[in-house]
Amino acid sequence: MRVLLVEDELRLVENIAAALREIAGFAVDCAFDGREGVHLAGNRCYDLIILDLMLPLLDGQGVLRKLRADHDRTPVLILTARGEATSIVELLDAGADDYLAKPFDLGELVARTKALIRRGNGVAHPVLRVGDIELDTIQQSVQRDGAAIDLTATEYHILEYLMHRPRVIVSKRQLLEHLYDYNWERHSNVVEAHVSNLRRKLDANVAEPSIETFRGRGYRLSLREPLQA
Question: Which residues, 6 or more positions from 156, have their beta carbon under 8 angstroms from its beta carbon?
Fold first, then answer.
């Protein structure tokens, strides 16, 4: 998953980005003013935007209105200092999906981001199921046909991304952009190896193949069982 963080307090940016990367395994891009935030949001695909209200050049409310005016439906989590004049009702009416008042617990922030991403992908429950594969986004555990499967962090996040998009062909570029931050190009030669290892582990004791490769196009979950919410 890839998150855009728009915040001008450097230490807070470092702390939030570290929590999202280390706890949730997200790729995080950072913008330090509203105009840069609008530019990045308009040129890259994100699963979530974390947006501070008090920003240089263009405030958070202005960024939010610009995004929604451009029909950008990416979930937005607002960071707001206690006592700020802008009301929460006003923010929600402008298109915000959730908010956190500063100071906040980083664990709660990570939990909120995961919930918003699930909702943004049409999945309210923290456990994803596609066919006989089950992925728990809280425990970050995976089972197939009831048997636990030990995955590396990268393998887990590839599978999670695919499970949010069942039976959709996901390109190599999409995987790279959502697994890594600005430097995703330097990882481009390892995606095939990660997908190959993931497929091998998922299919070890099951006849039905889990991931289908479309040469030059990408990858798709290829399970025949009915999808479950």
Answer: 25, 135, 140, 142
| pLDDT confidence of residue 229 | 41
222 residue type, one letter: S
130 and 123 in contact (C-beta within 8 Å)?
no
Same domain, 95 and 173: no
Higher pLDDT, 103 or 125: 103
Q: Tell me the per-residue pLDDT of 175-200, one tens digit each, with 9 for 90 and over.
A: 887 776 655 555 566 788 888 899 99
CB 209 within 8 A of CB 201: no
Q: What are phi and psi of 226, to 5 degrees?
A: -60, 145
Looking at the fold, whether 110 and 14 belong to one and the same domain comes out as yes
Instruction: Encode pLDDT of 109-121 as tens digits.
Output: 998 898 888 777 6
- Domain with 131, as residue range(s), is 127-228
